[in-house]
From TrEMBL:
Protein name according to UniProt: Uncharacterized protein
Membrane spanning residue stretches: 27-47, 76-94, 101-121, 127-145
Keywords per UniProt: Membrane, Transmembrane, Transmembrane helix
Amino acid sequence: MSDPLFPGPKYPVPAQKPEKPAVPKEVNIAFAVWVFSAIVSAVLQALDADVFVDAFMKQSANQPPEAQLPPSAIRTMFYVALAVVGLLMLLFAWKMRSGRNWARILLTVLAVFGLYTQASAVGFSDWLAVVSVAITATGLVYMYMPPSNAYFRSFRKVPPQQR
């Protein structure tokens, strides 16, 4: 029975959004590792831009002169590609921290591919390569620790429009 002095609402009251689970420290550590890795990788790659430009120029030396790009254009394209890849890595890390399992899987695939490339192309003779592998492995380990797994599982129950 409704009270005539205090009628109920005439429109449906939306259900309360379930609270987002707290981000576990393991996921925050993985996020920090991926951000650090993206920044360090971008800086190291930028320092090696001349190596890339030289290799590209050697590869295109057999092309007719009108088909060859000037070194400045190659360097600019390299820096743009580097920025895009770095920003994508930051986006994936951000989405992973937000509980998106697809981003965690994508970071895993990229990390495994990067580790494979590192091992096959450069090896582990360079101390910088060893540090890079350690950083990547740390990000992977923290993304799959039990609290991280529980965090990502908790988002399976929440409909996408309520995230």
